[in-house]
Specification:
Number of strands: 3
Radius of gyration: 22 Å
Distance between the termini: 66 Å
Order of helices and strands: HHHHHHHHHHEEEH
Largest sheet: 3 strands, antiparallel
Number of domains: 3
Bound molecules: zinc ion
Structural class: mainly alpha
Strand content: 5-15%
Shape: globular
Helix content: 40-55%
Strand order of the largest sheet: 1-2-3
Length: about 250
């Protein structure tokens, strides 16, 4: 067999941006995560500890997503080319990373201060610069009574505070659909964008003031520069749909 050039980090040996991204992510974060065992799903005690916390399932699921770095804060979205800016919308001082949202933002610090957990948080963040890793190391510490709430266990409180921060601080908040004013129609648009292929699609839907369907459209696009341009195309397609059904 003749020698050939191969990229060992993808299954087919072909270079892809996605595989290089995963490689860089692992280089920057994976080793640290493995070191504290927060990401080793087979052996880490963190998952057993997490699922045994005395908090509602939605809080455990949020913490589980946080430990996997799957929180849509601006820093994470910008890193994945899904957002053009990464600055924290609350303090506008730093990048809105997971660590910033949960621990380093001024608002987060105030909450930890009120809960009497500021020293523990500061110690975890001093030890681990990555927010995900700091959260893992906090939850790996033995359960004890919370400093200011003796009826509450410390790790339950940390998990609940992390979940509470989901509201208002994390980049994307989902809002339910709201009706338009009487005698008006409402247009909703969205775009799906794949940064590797630079392609994707848009969809648009028009509903009248009681929420009943009026019209919908979908389109595909190629060779689009970024996610913001894809959103702009979605809006353009939506306005074309509005015009085609005789609304203005
Ligand atoms: Zn901030």
């Amino acid at each position: 067999m003749e020698d050939f050039v191969s990229w060992q980090y993808s299954k087919l040996g072909i270079f892809t941006v996605k595989s290089s991204y995963h490689l860089e992510w692992d280089h920057q974060h994976g080793r640290k995560l493995r070191r504290t065992a927060t990401h080793d799903t087979s052996n880490s005690p963190i998952w057993k500890i997490l699922w045994s916390l005395n908090v509602p399932a939605k809080i455990k699921i949020h913490c589980w997503r946080s430990l996997l770095g799957a929180i849509p804060c601006f820093g994470v979205l910008a890193n994945r080319n899904m957002q053009n800016f990464s600055q924290c919308p609350i303090c506008q001082v730093d990048c809105e990373s997971i660590g910033h949202v949960f621990f380093k933002c001024q608002r987060a610090k105030q909450i930890w201060e009120h809960l009497g957990l500021a020293p523990a948080i500061a110690a975890a963040c001093d030890l681990e610069s990555e927010g995900v890793v700091a959260l893992g190391s906090l939850l790996l510490q033995p359960q004890e009574k919370a400093p200011m709430l003796p009826d509450v266990l410390r790790n339950d409180l940390i998990a609940t505070a992390i979940w509470a921060k989901k509201k208002g601080s994390v980049g994307i908040e989902r809002h339910g659909w709201q009706k338009s004013k009487e005698d008006f129609v409402k247009l909703n648009v969205d775009a799906a964008y794949d940064v590797d292929t630079r392609g994707g699609g848009t969809c648009a839907i028009i509903r009248e003031d009681r929420g009943f369907f009026v019209a919908a459209a979908k389109c595909q696009f190629q060779f689009v520069e970024d996610a913001a341009t894809a959103e702009a195309i979605a809006l353009q397609d939506g306005l074309a749909l509005v015009e085609s059904v005789g609304c203005n």
